[in-house]
Specification:
- There is one protein chain.
- With 301 residues, this protein is mainly α.
- The chain has 13 helices and 3 strands.
- It folds into 2 domains: 86 residues, DNA polymerase, domain 1, CATH 1.10.150.130; 173 residues, Intergrase catalytic core (hpI Integrase, Chain A, Orthogonal Bundle), CATH 1.10.443.10.
- Strands 1-2-3 form a 3-stranded antiparallel sheet, with no helix packed on it.
């Protein structure tokens, strides 16, 4: 059975209707490829309309026997469920066979979070005597101040800065735009970088509007941000597993611990679902204990 037309339609649906990135679209299509490869290996020439829950359960059992991690299995099942929702929408199927298909239980690993003091310590290791130092300080201050994803930070455009009113416009996942407040420290260091360092650089072609540039006048890579932070972690002596995304985690966690409304945090982070934002409601035991000591009558001394 040739599934190529169905995959082509699903791809267009993900791109146009869901506005997913090229990377996400390819991941979904790989999930469907795994299912069709399984069906072909079992010599079952089935169309999407012929697929039943039993077929999918057998497929899931097969990938489970491959000792695939639960998170990877969940990723594949999510892709297949999206495909059959599309088929139902386009009337390719009259019944959704994934309705009763369970996903493997996965433990969501809580990220390491930096305290405000640790962030100050980390940023304090930057050598401001070097031109890249001013740039790196501006980047990290911006990432923590506004909770940006790494990709959003390195793609930040000068034309998207509204520093006079304290906002920046960010293009996030699926090319969705959002307007986010930015703190006074981040504004200050962006201005210093832009007016005293970047002004002396010649941007490469198509990089004229990119805010943060490398020494060749091109935009920075995600890997470069990782190396910058790795170097600062070593210098600071902080013993945590830290990545560039830790600044975003810390931004959100500090807001939630400070009592910020979860919907407001969701809007600033650009999360499509509130359940994604809820990971930041995790609070360390010391914070919980302190809250109980102060507010619960049974814990008051």
């Amino acid at each position: 059975m040739n599934w190529a037309p169905y995959k082509k339609g699903f791809k267009a649906f993900l791109q146009l209707e869901k506005s997913l990135s090229a990377h996400s679209v390819e991941a979904y299509l790989r999930d469907i490829d795994k299912l069709t490869n399984y069906l072909e290996s079992n010599e079952e020439p089935l169309s999407p309309a012929d697929i039943t829950l039993q077929h999918l359960q057998s497929f899931i059992q097969c990938i489970g026997e491959m000792e695939m991690a639960p998170t990877s299995q969940a990723r594949i099942i999510s892709g297949i469920k999206s495909f059959f929702k599309y088929c139902l929408l386009e009337q390719i199927c009259t019944v959704n066979p994934t309705t009763l298909l369970p996903s493997p239980k996965t433990r969501r690993k809580l990220p390491d979070v930096l305290s405000f003091e640790e962030i100050e310590l980390l940023i304090g290791q930057i050598d401001l005597s070097k031109p890249e130092g001013g740039r790196n300080k501006a980047i990290l201050e911006t990432m923590y101040s506004s909770g940006l994803r790494v990709t959003e930070a390195i793609n930040l455009k000068i034309s998207c800065l509204y520093l006079d009113v304290g906002f920046i416009r960010v293009i996030g996942k699926g090319d969705k735009e959002r307007l986010i407040p930015i703190g006074s420290d981040a504004i200050k260091f962006i201005k210093i970088y832009k007016d005293t360092i970047r002004v002396h650089q010649t941007p490469a072609k198509n990089c004229e509007d990119i805010l943060f540039l490398n020494n060749r006048g091109k935009g920075l890579s995600r890997v470069m941000i990782f190396y910058i932070i790795k170097d600062l972690i070593l210098k600071s002596g902080i013993k945590k597993s830290i990545s560039p995304h830790s600044f975003r985690h810390s931004f959100a966690t500090h807001l939630v611990e400070g009592g910020a409304d979860l919907r407001a945090v969701q809007e600033m982070l650009g999360h499509e679902s509130i359940t994604t934002t809820e990971i930041y409601t995790h609070i360390n035991r010391e914070y919980l204990r302190d809250t109980l000591d102060r507010f619960h009558p049974a814990f008051k001394k």
